[in-house]
Amino acid sequence: MTFGKSLTLTEKDLGSSRADEVTRLDKERPAFIEKLRSGDENAFEEMVMRYSGDVYAMLYRLTSNSEEAADLTQETFLKALGAIRNFRGDASLRTWLFRIAINESRNRNRWWKRRRRDATLSLDAAIGNSELTVSETISDPSETAEDATIRRERENALEAALLELPEVYREAVILRDVESLSYEDAAAALGTTLGTVKSRIARGREELKKRLKGF
Amino acid sequence: MVNDMLCSEVQNRLAEEDLTAEVKAHIAVCGVCGEEYEVLNAMCLELSTLRRPAAPAGLNMAIIDAVRTENARARGRIIPISTSAREWFTFKFFPYAAGAIASVIVCIALLASLNAPPSDLAVRNDRTIFIPGAPAAVDPYALTPEEYAKSRLLFASESPSINPQGAIVALSRSLVRGEMTDDEVVVVADVFGNGLAKIATIVERPRDPGTMAAFERAIESGMSEAPFVPAEMENRPEIVRVVFRYQQVNVHIRQSDRRRS
To answer: Class assignment of domain A14-117?
Structure first.
């Protein structure tokens, strides 16, 4: 019998390459961070151009609402603008922005809950993002239409199951498995301990697996 | 050969990142747990390759514009204030402050109207009988809505004037004659152009449910006892949202004072 271990390790390595690259870029550029901290507007705009896509994608996964994710992304950068002078550089800029974004998302969530939006779910709400993405545009040319449909259905089911997870598990799984943050960075982004984040990820994966059973 | 660990025990730990040697050894020989492990890995793989949601076109520019505006505002600010404090003021304080100030003005005005010049009232009170729930318009000595609205033109756009012949004033007057306990109701209400109002949220309920019911009846009463004066009398917007605090305070009067009065 073949096990997925070797495949998983490869994927984890592949997945974390983006995060590693970002961390490396940040660390290679202390001058850039210094510019940010001194209030250089051009540097801040460069940071927006570089990370807004990542922040938006992560927020979209958390909220499953394009407008909400875009609004929260803007709020995240405005919050970052006010707090950048206190950025100590312990984590990468990306992780730091993720932390602000998650806090914004939690606050928004609480706000909506107080107004009971969660009690209703629009039947027209799309599951997943319908816009074409780079990965779709350059999808495997050997993939048949049927394969593509199955893959799309599976992705939709995965995204829907992800949305059903309790917030704390969803955040942890998204940061680790979707955004490929290291455990340490995920813990920093969530403002919690390594042990807690590990346990949340494990519980989140378990829950997700249960919800996908039969698919 | 499968080691001593139970399959259920192993499966509970498969989602952990760092598998122990014992778990690894188990899944290497146990077909069921191996398959579970494979499913989990496939799921993690799918998660890491999910389509990346594309940000809406123009998001970057919108953020940059917002950042520039914020920077410009910060440069023009005389007193430095942190973003979080500013946001707190903007989002939490101001909407309520406007409503609260409006409600305070309404209360003050209401009390002022109830405590009209003593000489006048002394004469009037002798003969005035207030019937709870009865239309206040039967009181011939009350202020007219026009007179009262005219006196409050300065604040009317944010604080609608109470109708002196409306149900709220009638309720306040009727309480004076009965046994009263200290109580308080705070509501957010929409006041409409025709002087009617609708409670949007009950912020604070009174201790006595009866007070709440009476207050609700009064504030949501019909045209004949509209709780506020019509918008046209005081040139206020068609719909105004107010925070309305209604307090009843039992004032103990000494016997000697009562005898004197």
So the answer is: mainly alpha
